[in-house]
């Protein structure tokens, strides 16, 4: 990788290669400081952005930031690059790409047509030149639609993952949280449990329970227990009711191997899950979670900044046509995103870059209890992401996940976002809410409808749970 330099206000700023330019151009965050790749000063950050703005996009096709020979994620990025989709952008610099994305004459369809020609490094680079409002304005243009039992990502819609985690995987506690979320209009993205234990037998029990609830109430949604992909393959082999295949992924081969996965294993899992043919309105079966800082945590960041590596994880996700991609933005902790401002910036970057690359992006708008952040910061992020057109968010009882021990968004927060921004659930789920009397003709929650559903479902759940 060739060294670069730029003269700014009488000072020559030198950069050792493309990865150094990308890292130095990144808005300040604690993870890059911890990794030793952050800009030395605000002046160096401006110099890096100036240099980055004038770089031709084709630079990213000839200078891989992690060697092709040693990293299968790089090979995936290079080998699957769509030259036809890239053609309208091929003469642009990074700065020109920013101007094109923001132009009133560039609509979402034009951006979507170029998505597979945009590499992760291009997406990361252009995001580093953007203010927060730029990230919102462009992401809002882009619609990425996926489907399984309902349709997610349509413009004007906001879906919710109903997350009924329990510290001991107690079925009664999980069922109560599921009912609570349904009564609040949550669950159209997925009813998804992070299990406290990861045995195949326990996961099978939880999958069967959710499936009985979903089928018994005729809910047009999908279920998932967020277990390791190898467990999902075994569950499919045993005939468990697997709707979605989940896996955490990252942007380098070494980090993915630390997760116990590689690209071939993901293909095997996708094929196994597709073979069940459980979707009704679509067949997008993969659910991926990501988050800035995972490569540094695994000591596999190769001297690359955490946001660029996050974008490389999106290249992995894109290869498997996922139903859902979720950046768990503040989960790792303040070592990587120190405070509310850094979490907000990362959330907007992740959402923008994922959608720019053609992914159905959701956000777990969250923070750990030792971060310099609070629920007011999460309210700000939630509102901005709602304006930006985020596909889905989390619905956690009381916004406090008592199993994972972090703060997220609640069922009430999702109701707030839908109300103030005029957003609605996925259409099939919206129709179900109206059919069972949970919503009135205007789409608002109905107190009498909630009572009716509870009276129907509580005896059924009691019988189900013995």
TrEMBL record:
EC number: 4.3.1.7
Matching InterPro entries: Aldolase_TIM, EutB, EutB_dom_2_sf, EutB_N_sf
Cofactor(s) needed for function: adenosylcob(III)alamin
Compartments it resides in: Bacterial microcompartment
Residues bound to adenosylcob(III)alamin: 195, 247, 297, 403
Pathway per the UniProt entry: Amine and polyamine degradation; ethanolamine degradation
Pfam families per record: EutB
A single BP term in Gene Ontology: ethanolamine catabolic process
Cellular component per GO, a single term: cytosol
Cofactor note (record): Binds between the large and small subunits.
Subcellular location, principal: other
One MF annotation (Gene Ontology) recorded for this entry: cobalamin binding
Reaction(s) catalysed (UniProt annotation): ethanolamine = acetaldehyde + NH4(+)
Swiss-Prot/TrEMBL keywords: Bacterial microcompartment, Cobalamin, Cobalt, Lyase
Residues given in the record as substrate binding sites: 161-163, 194, 289, 364
Subunit (UniProt): The basic unit is a heterodimer which dimerizes to form tetramers. The heterotetramers trimerize; 6 large subunits form a core ring with 6 small subunits projecting outwards.
Family under the similarity heading: Belongs to the EutB family.
Function text: Catalyzes the deamination of various vicinal amino-alcohols to oxo compounds. Allows this organism to utilize ethanolamine as the sole source of nitrogen and carbon in the presence of vitamin B12.
Alphabetical list of NCBIfam families matching this protein: PRK15067.1 (NF011649)
Protein name: Ethanolamine ammonia-lyase large subunit
Organism expressing this protein natively: Sphingomonas prati
Lineage of producing organism: Bacteria, Pseudomonadati, Pseudomonadota, Alphaproteobacteria, Sphingomonadales
Gene name of the encoded protein: eutB
